[in-house]
Amino acid sequence: MKKSIILTISLLMAGAFAASAQDCTLFFPQKEGTKLTYANYSKPGKVDSYLTYLIKNKNSDQSRITIEAENLNAKGKSELKYEFDAWCEDGSFYIDMRNMISSMQVKDIEGFKIETND
Questions:
Q1: Where are the beta strands (DSSP E) in 15-63?
Q2: Does residue 100 contact residue 9 with C-beta atoms inside 8 Å?
Q3: Is the pTM of this model over 0.70?
Q4: C-alpha distances in angstroms, 62 versus 40, 54, 95?
Q5: In terms of CATH architecture, what is 2-106?
Q6: 1-39 pLDDT, tens per residue?
Q7: Rg (CA), the chain
Q8: Could you give the angle at the alpha carbon of 59 between the alpha carbons of 55 and 63, nearest 5°?
Q9: How far is it, in rounded angstroms, from Cα 97 to Cα 2?
């Protein structure tokens, strides 16, 4: 579970940096109802967990989307579910991580660090 949470945050951060100064559709589609599913594999190539994103709604100004995310174990059982907003502003891509962190248990992300050179 801890690996899934760290992987989820890492994917979001990597996508945010890659999408910076570009169109937001590069990381998250903006069409309501779109569902993305990612499978995470262990070293022997077996499915370890899944991560799904559902685009719930798009604000009328077309710059902010609400995303429902869910972490599932290898058998498809839900382990964590949360929502967050993502948006473009002045050519930069943003993700509001407040709901992500509050949904997780602090012990699951203890010692996790994010560093940038910006």
A1: 35-41, 47-58
A2: yes
A3: no
A4: 31, 17, 15
A5: Beta Barrel (2.40)
A6: 555 655 566 555 555 544 443 455 557 777 889 999 999
A7: 15
A8: 90
A9: 17
